[in-house]
Amino acid sequence: LAKTTQPISMDSYEGQEVNITCSHNNIATNDYITWYQQFPSQGPRFIIQGYKTKVTNEVASLFIPADRKSSTLSLPRVSLSDTAVYYCLVGDNRGNNYQLIWGAGTKLIIKP
Amino acid sequence: SQTIHQWPATLVQPVGSPLSLECTVEGTSNPNLYWYRQAAGRGLQLLFYSVGIGQISSEVPQNLSASRPQDRQFILSSKKLLLSDSGFYLCAWGAGVIGGEQFFGPGTRLTVL
């Protein structure tokens, strides 16, 4: 069964680039990797999804090495409003039921 | 545009009482629907997902059940609540394959006393 591991917390400063890495050693061949952002007392919000190599959208980039055993979410030039919890998510379709494996979340604190 | 509704926003229930949480989606057809629970300061735990009316997949065996009586309606229920059922319950919808982009509702904060 797939499992995800990510740092519990990270600090950075406004204007810096922040990279958050998630390890998913047992990811299945067909599984995608997805990242979400969550503010307190709200539901998570989708950031980005990828399968391999690099994906970029208007808010973030996602780097996935060839072995796909980890992924790195990159947030360019963070601001105070990026303070939130960030989750990685992988799917696992090898059992009878498709399973979604969420990481425990990385609490990112941006300082002025 | 699509919107997702959950109610109630907060709920305080005694141990042993029943539970019914409702989630509805507007602006889309045949969505995948999900129920999650989030304990305080923890990550998300997928409880159920559904790919169509009457189709429910359970991720975690426990005293909760889910039903999908209509295409855009997803209900989470319990006959007898436990203290450990306290948490933040989130409903989400998505299109396409399971595990694709999900859109979350505002959540229900449940406290079991």
Structure description:
The complex is a heterodimer of chains A (about 110) and B (about 110). The mean pLDDT of chain A is about 90. In chain A, about 0% of the residues lie in helices and about 50% in strands. By secondary structure, chain A is mostly beta strands. In chain A, the strands form two sheets. In chain A, strands 1, 3, 4, 8, 9 and 10 form a six-stranded mixed sheet that branches. Chain A contains no helices and ten strands. By secondary structure, chain B is mostly beta strands. In chain B, about 0% of the residues lie in helices and about 60% in strands. In chain B, a hairpin with a 2-residue loop joins strand 7 and strand 8. Chain B is globular and about 40 Å long. Chains A and B meet through strand 4, strand 8 and strand 9 of A and strand 5, strand 9 and strand 10 of B.
Helix content of chain B: under 10%
Number of helices of chain B: 0
Q: What separation lies between the terminal Cα atoms of chain B?
A: 38 Å
Oligomer: heterodimer
- What is the distance, rounded to the nearest whole angstrom, between the alpha carbons of the first and last residues of chain A? 40 Å
Q: Structural class from helices and strands of chain B?
A: mainly beta
Main sheet overview of chain A: 6 strands, mixed
What general outline of chain B do the C-alpha atoms trace? globular
Count of separate DSSP helical elements of chain A: 0
Summarize the structure in short.
The complex is a heterodimer of chains A (112) and B (113). Chain A is mainly β and 112 residues long.
Key features of this structure:
heterodimer, A: 112 residues, mainly beta, 6-stranded mixed β-sheet, 4-stranded antiparallel β-sheet, 10 strands, 50% strand, globular, B: 113 residues, 7-stranded mixed β-sheet
